[in-house]
# Entry
Amino acid sequence: MEITIKVPDPAPPEIIQALAELVARIGPGASVTTDTEWTVDRAEKLLRQIQPHTRNLIVAAVEGKGFADGAAFRKQYGENSLKGPSQSITKAVKAGAELGYWGRSMTSPIKATTPDKNGWSKTGGYYLDKDLVPIFAEALVTVQEDPA
# Structure
C-alpha cells in the first residue's frame, strides 16, 4: 500500500516527529520521501543562508537567463571570485536539510560547466536550470527588498 501525506513546507516539527515514529513502528519496508523541488520559499531560505558575495553567483545566473559566464563573473568580481561560492551553496543546501527546510536529497540549484578554455582548471561558468530562473528571480527580489 502506498500512502501520500502532504504537509506545509516546511513541515512543523511535531508532524516530522509523528511521521518518524510511524515509520519506526512500521519497520523495514517503510520509507519517507520528500519532494526535491525548488520553490520560491525554499529559494529565499537558501539565499538568506549564503553570504552576499556567494549570492552574486545566483544573481549572475538569473541575469544570464540560466547561465553565469565564468570569465565575465571573474572580470566583474575578481580573478578568485569563483573559488568557493558553489561549495558554499552546496553547504547551505545541506544545512537547509538539517534545519528541515527541505529533504536531504535536495541538490544545489547551481551546476558547474566544463573547464574554461582560456584558463587552466577554471570553470567556464555555472548553470541554473531554466525552470529555476523565475523561481530564484522572485526570491532574489524578496531577499533584496528585505535582507533580514
